[in-house]
Amino acid sequence: MTAAPTRIILICSGKGGVGKTTLTANLGIALARQGSRTAVLDADFGLRNLDLLLGLENRIVYTAQEVLAETCRLEQALVKHKQEPNLALLPAGNPRMLEWLTPEDMQRIVALLAERFDIVLIDCPAGIEDGFRNAAAAAREAIVVTTPEVSAVRDADRVIGLLNTQGIEPIQLVLNRVRPKMMLNQEMLAVSDVTDILALPLLGLVLEDEQVIVSTNRGEPLTLNGNGSPAAKAYHNIARRLRGETVPLIDPAKEGQGLRAKLGRFMQTRIF
Amino acid sequence: MTLRDFINRLLGRQPASATLAKQRLQLVLAHDRSDLNPELLEKMRSEILEVVSRYVEIDVEGGDVSLETEDRVTALVANLPIKRARAIPLAAVAEPAEG
Questions:
Q1: ipTM greater than 0.85, yes or no?
Q2: pLDDT digits (tens, 9 = 90+) for B35-54
Q3: Most buried of A75, A109, A120, A256, CB within 10 angstroms?
Q4: Cα–Cα distance between A195 and A18 in angstroms, integer?
Q5: Which residue of A has its CA nearest to B25?
Q6: Superfamily of domain A7-267
């Protein structure tokens, strides 16, 4: 029996600050919890943060840099998560790596990870320059993260164009920081607006959730402790869909049964 | 237009901001997506001229091929002054016989 090939998934957004790294950390934990041997690779060499969100910043000895220079073995650089041993982080090296790192280097690192893991998540830097190109070089599929804001959607569209030219497929969308009340009042782009404009299948919706900030303060991703916060549920659902389960997507602006919600939906009726 | 937009218009108010956001995005993306770099545009221009001049003699100097964006549509606009039609289109000679 041959094992399924390792899935190598780029997590990108174009615009910074929309929740790429938070998604990578939470999805990494959730996938590991659900039984996939998962590696998260911090490809944001300039502004690395994945270690911090996973609470692993004090346990880094070696990084991708030493692995590439062959001054250490991959196993020595990988930081295994204590509470979730199915998950390991390969930390980004020194920011000066940006000067010499090539797409081939990224492919070498990912090929090493592919020997040991079922899923590799690559946390991509913001922007569409060399950092993005390096990170994308080794990816086979992609998750584009955006928020329902004009600047984030525009930048996501740029990134999708680049992913298309690189032949990365499938590309799926995660819509982050959704505020159902604002959507209901038509003061925020609707879920269908964003999916129509970007023409991508929706992998998941994450509601705006204060618990995300609390969890980053602690360095414990929300998916780690199984609390019932809306964002934690959303991340777990995204992980399930990635693993091939069918989990229905609920548009939050179409859910409420109160009078306000019903009125809001009535006001969204297209008349022409 | 949604019902809310319609009521806003009746009351002389601006449309809901989500409606504006969608309109503005569609406009800006039409432009972003067709953003050919000058080198590609030049290549396309010379190939279009080549094809057209198989059929008609054109004034290459006075010609212009450019992208224009209006409303929500980006269009490729070619303005090629024709000097005269060719008696025998070059294409008929150049194309290999089928079979």
A1: no
A2: 666 677 778 888 888 888 88
A3: A120
A4: 17
A5: A150
A6: P-loop containing nucleotide triphosphate hydrolases (3.40.50.300)
